[in-house]
Amino acid sequence: MNEMHDGTSPTPERSPVLVRPRRKGIYILPNLFTLAALFGGFYAIVMAMNGQFEQAAYGIFIAAVLDSLDGRVARMTNTQSAFGEQMDSLSDMVSFGAAPALIVYEWALKGLGKLGWIAAFVYCSGAALRLARFNTNITVVDKRFFQGLPSPAAAAVLIGFIWVMDDSGYKGVSKIDWLAWCAFGVTLYAGLTMVTNVPFYSFKDVSFKRTVPFIVIVAIALGFAVITIHPPIVLFSVFLVYGLSGYAVYAYKRVKGKPVSVIATSTDEPDEQGLHR
Questions:
Q1: Distance of alpha carbon 271 from alpha carbon 205, whole angstroms
Q2: Which DSSP symbol is given to 204?
Q3: Nearest to 79 by CA among 33, 144, 140, 137
Q4: Phi, psi angles (nearest 5°) of residue 108
Q5: Domain boundary assignment for the chain
Q6: Is residue 263 within 8 Å of 196, Cβ to Cβ?
Q7: Dist CA 127 CA 122 (whole Å)
Q8: What is the pLDDT along the chain (277 residues), one digit of tens a residue?
Q9: Which of 223, 229, 246, 253 is the most buried (most CB within 10 A)?
Q10: Three-class SS of residue 59?
């Protein structure tokens, strides 16, 4: 009676097999660069606390180099991830936000009392706001330009100024009024420029996979040679020119009647017609 009419036994129902979800891993290579950049910022803070501002400058500039590589390495090895993006932003906040603000305060601004730490906070908060805006606007910004001065360049301007002055023999700057006020001005300029809408060229349209004329390689070699002549002055000059270039581009576009905003009106590929004023 338990058999079916066709002579076969009923097939027992199988319980569903529970498949354990696979754990998401973390890509090592790009995050190693990010961690190394974070260490550079932390190292710079420690060196500044010990009055070794030249070593602090080394830490910030090395962090800037590593920060420029982690994203490219991730794209070249197809190892981009949401974790890597968040890690990069947090590393940038330490290395190019908190670290420069603390270094300049320790170097010069603490002698100005409340105005000193207010200037340092303006820079630090400017870096935080700039990074937050970058993360939220990343899909609608013309990739050829940054919206405001990027935080690594702002840090390079500020720390480059400290490096040049320290290399020139200025010690105990917090007690030198004119130099402390100069540091105050540079700090405010770098901090506020990060949160402006001024366009700064991003160099993201430069492809390393394309062939270039031989003279380009020669120019790069000469560039490295020039840097070795006197790294503090050369690097500070380069980043200072870049830190002013955005205002020059802004003024040029205004004079020519071109759109000056880098925010697109749609998520399509941004171009001059797709940007609003």
A1: 13
A2: T
A3: 33
A4: -140, -35
A5: 28-256
A6: no
A7: 9
A8: 455 555 555 555 565 555 555 556 677 888 899 999 999 999 999 999 999 999 999 999 999 999 988 878 877 888 778 888 889 999 999 999 999 999 999 999 998 999 999 999 999 999 999 999 888 887 777 778 888 999 999 999 999 999 999 999 888 787 888 999 999 999 999 999 999 989 998 887 666 667 777 787 888 888 888 888 898 999 999 999 999 999 998 998 888 887 777 765 444 444 444 444 4
A9: 246
A10: helix
Q: Where are the beta strands (DSSP E) in the chain?
A: 145-147, 199-201
For the chain, report the end-to-end CA distance as a whole number of angstroms.
85
**Which of 97, 49, 39 has the alpha carbon at shortest distance from 70?**
39
Q: Is the pTM of this model over 0.85?
A: no
Of the candidate CATH numbers 1.20.120.1760, 1.10.3720.10, 3.30.390.10, 3.10.580.10, the domain formed by 28-256 belongs to 1.20.120.1760
Residue with tokens 């880098």: 262
CA distances from 183 to 159, 162, 169 (A): 10, 8, 16
The conformational region for residue 80 under phi > 0 = left, psi -120 to 50 = alpha, else beta, is beta
90 vs 87: CA distance, rounded Å: 5
Which contiguous run of DSSP H or E holds residue 14?
none
User: What is the DSSP code string of 95-163?
Assistant: IIIIHHHHHHHHHTGGGGTHHHHHHHHHHHHHHHHHHHHHHHHTTTB-TTEEES--HHHHHHHHHHHHH
CA atoms of 81 and 37, how far apart (whole Å): 18
